[in-house]
Amino acid sequence: MEKMNVIEYLVTSIRDSAKYNPDVQAAPSCIIWTDKDRQWESIIPRLQMIMPELLVLGAYQSEKKIGPAIWIRCAIAGTLADISIPSETLPVIYLPGVSRLDLRGVESCPDNLKPLAFLQYLGCFWSQSNTKDWTLSAWLKSGEGGLALDVDQDAGTKNALQIAINALLDEKVDLLRNHHLDAAYFNTLLTGGDPVRDLLTWMEQADAFKNDRAGSEWKAFNEVCKSNFLFSPEKEGILSAAERLANHEGPWKSVWDRYCEAPHRYPQIPNLIKKCKKPEFDLFADETTTSGWPQWNEGQEAQLRKGLMELATIPEHEARKRILKLNAEHSPRRSLVWTELGMSPYAIVLENLSVIAELAANSLAGGTEKDIADGYRSFGWRIDDALVSALNHCETADVFEAVSVAIRAIYYPWAEACALRLQQVWDMNAPGKKLHLIDSNDPCILFVDGLRYDCAKRLSTFLAERGFTIQEEAKWAPLPSVTGTGKPAVAPLATKAESVTDDPDGYNFEVLNTNNLRKIIKDNGYTILLNDGTPIPSAETTKKLWVECGDIDHEGHSRGWKLARQIDVILKELTDMISSLSEKGWKKIKIVTDHGWLLVPGGLNKVELPVALADTKWGRCASLKDGADSNERLYPWYWNPNQHFALANGISCFKAGEEYTHGGLSVQEALVLQLTVTRGASQGTGSSVSIADVSWKGLRCSVQVDGSVDGVQVDIRTDAGAADSSVVLTPRPLKAEGIASLAVEDDSLEGKKAFVVCFTTDGSLVAQIETVIGGGA
User: Fold this and answer.
1) 538-553 pLDDT, tens digit each
2) Going from the N-terminus, what domains does the chain have, and what CATH number goes with each?
3) Alpha-carbon Rg for the chain in angstroms
4) Which of 107, 222, 260, 604 is the most exposed place for a label (fewest CB within 10 A)?
5) Handedness of CA 23, 27, 33, 36 (dihedral sign)
């Protein structure tokens, strides 16, 4: 019986009250249920759904089986056409507002009850053993006819029980026996068992929350709040709740912690707190006491913005110190809930600005060309990476303005000094900077236009997370650092060198147009795959593959500083492409690029180059007319050293307002990173392996495996996971066709069960199947 829920137990208890001893008692004609205090009245409609014999005294409503005493007499007698009582049950007559004592004297009982008074002699009562009416609390607690539960008897518990009775009916009796039932328990039944969530939901939804709950549920919610949070929603209101949440003291600490776990579920709460008056914090107040107030966070953000804007008027070294000081003051706010809600944009960008400030204290404006390259490879690229990250967080014009001021204060001087030094020590005659056509044997080359060094490092990280192994090689890009010059330099052209003109035109720094370049690549035996949705060819059917994907350069010229928001999108697209290539069997993928770029919000400083002196003028490079006299240094073109061009000094630009540009000589533009990507020991290996067939001829086992079998070996073991339980002399690698043959040396093992297993080079199992050595069942 304990497996039943409360309502089932209640129905059984009522019906069982009619049991009698036929040797000494007459069968009762009905069951009378008196309820002077009307405690059970609210659940009668539910009971009538499962007790068709239940009749109720009251104003006439025949469809609800409610009517006056005379109507009940007729219903019991079976004279009402619309009322039917099952023959296997006795009528149950519920009398709300009536006590057993009211029926005791037939002559003295109220007139409205007289037609029923005589039934007390013909029927039986559902009541306590002491003849008192069953109250809710008494029936739950009593061990004689009740549920024998542990129920508090205080007024608060009885009131909560009255409110929660409908919910209580659905509870399992055996589960209730494991609880102490008090007011808090009954109130929780109506509020879903999670008062913290309900409180936050009420704060978020306000009147809608109240309107969605019946009166009893709303009362229970208020009682729960009073008990758990010392707070009355009905009397104190939402703004009082918001103030307590902001202070999150005492029992409200758990509410605050829950809010911080998922603040996006409650978007109205910050606005509610802003409507409350913020306390006047003293000078020593910190995040532990102020963190709950978005107004305080907004004030801190305003101070931080002011501090960043002031960087425009102070020297570079002072600006770096100021940023590091600001970061020490504001970094704790990055862990607050307001940051997760996007309300601390200045604190967020400050993290990246502080990286620039710290690393830019190390100058690259000294030493040799190699020293500069080594320094950039060691730490310099992190500065550019931090700059991109800072710009990526600029969601509003105000934030961008402040970030631009900071970047121009601490980054621009560092990059300018580095570029000037590189241009000063640049060795134009170094072997790696002279024309060298590539005779590539790389089976798969992926070209990315404008994959700057720091972006290549990010891509390397993304790939490593997918389990790839990456080799990095830094190289100087051909000058000028533009696509027309750099892309052919990394393309496989050597076997068709005669297709490249001996005296290429330097006017646009383009040795081959796109169509001609692709034609030569094809003539070198490469299939060309563009990022246009064309299916990736398999390495089994294609000898060599040239892939073009991820046009960072195009995005930079189109978007300016907003390129920073697209970098990760493009790099993840590249990561997906490389993963897809790997899945198609391309074991080694070489990633090459043509040039890097400069990115400075607000634009690079313009240097004048009269139009009359230039045949063509790009942002950072220009082709000068014969005999033109310019202060700019001249450099030989990679493809024709007899052609010279001018590069803008430092990181200046021949055009005004250019935030993104390239073509010049700086580590950002000219030092690039080539990546060679291979599948890791356990990545991409055996990920889709399945054992298709196992066959035996004597003690020799032939195994057929489907899927990616590169690097997968086969073994036969008595225990699948234990390599030392192998029964073959040595595991065998799968051939390209996915087959392997193994022999069991010990003939005493024939007929015994074992496992054929496939595993990768790191020992990870990727497939297994049970077998019988020698074959058979």
Assistant:
1) 999 999 999 999 999 9
2) 191-274 (no CATH), 294-425 (no CATH), 433-679 (3.40.720), 690-772 (2.60.40)
3) 42
4) 107
5) negative
